[in-house]
Every structure is written in C-alpha cells, then in structure tokens.
Amino acid sequence: MNKFFLIFSLAFSLCIAFPFSSCTDEEKEDIEEPETDPKEVEREKKLAANRYYMKKYYEDYFPYYFWHDDVIHRVSSYKYESYSTIEEYFYATLFKDDRWSWMMTADEYLSSESGEKTGTYGVSLGQAIEYYNDYNIRIRYIYPGSPFEQYGVTRGWTLTHLDSVPVMEYVASGMFERAFYKENQLYTFKDLKGESHSFRSSPLSTLSVRSSLKADVIEPGDYPGLTEPVGYFLYMSYKAGFLDDIDNAFALFKEAGVKKVILDLRYNGGGDGRASDLLVSYLAPEPADNMVYKRTIHNRELSIYNSNDTIHRKPNSLDLDALYVIGGSGTASASEVTINGLKPYLDLYLVGDTTYGKPNGMYVLLYPGEDEDYARYDVGDYSNLKLVYLPIAFFSKNSLDESIPYKGFIPDNYRPDDIKHDFGVEEDNIKACLEHMVNGSFPALPGLFSTQMKGSVSERQLQIPDDIITSPLYGSTLLPLPKELR
User: Fold this and answer.
1) How open is the CA angle 327-437-224, to the nearest 5 degrees?
2) Mean pLDDT calculated for residue range 216-245
3) Lowest mean pLDDT among 3-12, 325-334, 338-347
C-alpha cells in the first residue's frame, strides 16, 4: 500500500466514523443556541454596575472619609468581586468605631429633602418605658394632615385596639406593624380624658411635613407666676429647604418681646448645617455677633479646608436672658452642634434626658459627581442622580474647642419624656422649664402613669421599634460639598 492510498483510506475512515462532524452554513443555522436566562443576565449587569460603583467610591469619595488614614491599608486590599452590592462594600470600608456613616439611594435622599413621607399616618408612636415602666402605645407627635387628625387624635392618645383586638396581642405576636398599616384598619384610641374613640382609616400614599411642628408664645396668664412671654419652638429636623420655619418662629417671638425661649429638640436627630447656622444666629446674643460658634476639622489630607462657622445675627434675632433646651436620646448631631455652639455665649439649661452623642458630620457626596453633574444638581436637576454617600467627613468643636461628648450631653435637670400630655404648659418637660423661670429651681419628678399590665409576656415582646432612632436620617449633620473640594 502506497503512502497516498494510506492517507486517503484514513481520511475516508474518519468521514465514516464522524459523518456529522462538518456542516453546511444552512445546517449551522438550524442548531439551537442554549437559552439565556434573563434573570441571570440582569443579575450580572447589576453586579457589574455595583463593582463599578465600588471602584468610583474608593477612588473619588473615600478620600473624604475622616478616618481615611486609619483604614486605607485595610481597604486598599479589598477586591471588588468579594462584594455583591455597593452598600455591602461601603459599610465594609468604615472605621471600627464609626456608628454614624451611611449611604442612600437617590429616591431616599430626594424624599428626605422634600419633607415628603410615603405610606404614612404622619404620627410617631412611643412607649413611656423609661422611668414610668409603661408599655401603653401612645401618640408621641402627629403632623398636620395626618388621616388621624380629622378624628381629633393628639399627642398622648393611647392606642388600645386594632380590629377590635387588644393592641398588645399584635405586639406580642410580632404582627403590630403589619396590623397598624393595614388598609381600612379599625383603630380604637383612648383620649387624654380617658374616653374611647373608634374609626377606620388608611395610610396616606404621601404626606408633606414641615421641619417645625409648633411655634408658640406662652403668655403670663398661661402659667402661674409667669411675668413675661416665653417662646416655645418645637423643632423637628434641620432642613435647608424649610428655613422659613425658623424665620417665621423668630418673627413671632420678636414681635412678642420674648426674652426667654424653650427650644424643644427632643425628637430632632439633626440635618442640614445651614439650618443650624440660621437657628444659632437667631438665638445668640448681640456680643456674640460675628463670633465663632463651630470649628470644623477634617482628615489630614483635607486639613487645609478646616474652617470656622460664625454667628450672623438677623433683624429678628433675640436678646435672651436664658435659653432652655429640651433634649433626649432623639436629640442628635446638628441639634447637639446648636447646644455646643451656644453654650459659651448664654445661660443654657438642658432639660430632659441625655442626648445621643454625635460630634461629627458629613458632606453630601452625590454620584455621579463630575462638574457637569453638580452643575445640574445646583439648579435642582437630580434626574441623573443614582447614589448619595454620607461618610463622616469632619468633626465639630465650639469656640472653646469643646467637642460634643460621645455619650451625649447630660441634662442639667433629668426628666423622662412625658407622652401622656400634649405639648403645652401641662407637659412635664415644658412645665419644668417654666417653673425654673418662675422660682429658680426645677420641680420634683412627676408621678407614675397607670401602667399596661404585662402578664406573662416578656418586656422585650411588648416593645415596638423606636420610629425616631430607626429613621434613616437620624443623627445627621449634613453639609453640601464645597466647590473647592469637588
């Protein structure tokens, strides 16, 4: 057998053995490609996007972090593919003692800035557990426009039943929140006189709320022994979009000739530093005009941007004899900056409970964040906004270089939050301030409430989540990113 015949025979044998090993173009078109799972494609796209966000955060935003030098060695070793979301990566980069930094989606941020709440009754629910050992669920505060408002519900009303079932049965079973927000729910409340009220209601899809809940002048005839008008300002959140709430309150106080103010910050977890600048400027005395009230300190690389914020008194700024601040665990961040900044300049009495303790703040770091993006943001166009990073970027001290204590400010006069009374001269914290104005001393602590029977159920099972401290904006001092740092 010659070589040619051998090669030909081998080739022919291969064709016989593998008759379908080659195809025409038409035959190739008939072969079905494996189906692609759309969910898998979408998942891969999200993973790719999140890893891109991680890279951008590390390169462009992480350098603002106050503890950057302390954690950079650790964070620089992170591999993006080890994390599935930008949120997971963001929180992994934080300093071990950082309990304040967080991030938001664009929708969450824009909702917070507009003061618009979704799926809400516009109320806060509280339990007077501390001091009173009372597990009744009461209205802590209620915003105008709440669906409950038309039924006369006010602070201090007690929720007793849902669907005619004792409310504590829902709490103990872990079903309270679902039952409370049920559409067309039957609610039964007990009012401040002990009378029962039942009605059906549903949550609002949206509710716009202001930064101030109440601004009032307490006249001499409103409280025994009071000889002058007193301004009462219940300030709920530092929002740059609602600075007119502060302006309006102090115009009212100025016109009334107010020399003493009760500033109620017990539920104010902070917010935009521009609002604290304005509030301090209205409250600081004339000798403090143009004086420093806050020193802002950055990390080592950004220390050139350390700055001093000064007081700029307004036409309606007051000349106070004394300032009384009502605080508590819900008092945080910008609220504490206000307290710390004013302490060197006037007689300030802190009444209530120990504040949260947040001596630092964040810049609002917007993504995407190129110059052209910020140009749109600056004129209110947030259509391209995707994420907002809020890592701690600076610490604050007052003019005496005093910091806000990590454990919060201890009050001059401890008092529990009196959620059995509406805001007014009968509410214990407000009454204590007025009594000190009249007699120079704070009154004894109040008596106990009638308490909710716990039976055999554990205390933990009867507690509802605190809707103030669990708020995504709780404990925030925010400032817009300066142009020099963009």
Assistant:
1) 115
2) 96
3) 3-12
CA 203 to CA 472: how far, in whole Å? Answer: 20
DSSP 241-280: GGHHHHHHHHHHHHHHT--EEEEE-TT--EEEHHHHHHHH
Mean pLDDT for 380-394 is 95
Q: What whole-number distance in Å separates Cα of residue 413 and Cα of residue 203?
A: 38
Q: Which SS3 state, helix, strand or coil, does residue 14 take? A: helix
List the chain domain ranges: 43-98, 119-206, 210-446
DSSP state of 150: G
Alpha-carbon separation of residue 406 from 9, 116, 395, 452 (angstroms): 89, 31, 12, 34
Of residues 453 and 10, which shows the higher confidence score? 453
Q: Which residues pair with 104 in a beta bridge?
A: 388
- Give domain 119-206's CATH superfamily: PDZ domain (2.30.42.10)
CA distances 152 to 158, 196, 289, 428, Å, are: 13, 12, 44, 22
At residue 124, the 3 state secondary structure works out as strand
Q: Can you read off the two tokens belonging to residue 8?
A: 């030909």
Contact 71, 94 (CB under 8 A): yes
- CATH number for the region 210-446 comes to 3.90.226.10
Cα distance between residue 13 and residue 305, in whole Å: 82
Q: How far is CA 199 from the centre of its chain?
A: 31
Residue with tokens 């817009």: 480
**Chain segment 124-157, per-residue pLDDT in tens:** 999 999 899 999 999 999 999 999 999 999 999 9
On the question of pLDDT at 6 being above 70, the answer is no
Any idea which residue has 């995707």 for tokens? 386
pLDDT tens-digit profile of 339-386? Answer: 999 999 999 999 999 999 999 999 999 999 999 999 999 898 999 999
Do residues 397 and 298 make contact, with C-beta atoms less than 8 angstroms apart? no
The whole-model pTM stands at: 0.84
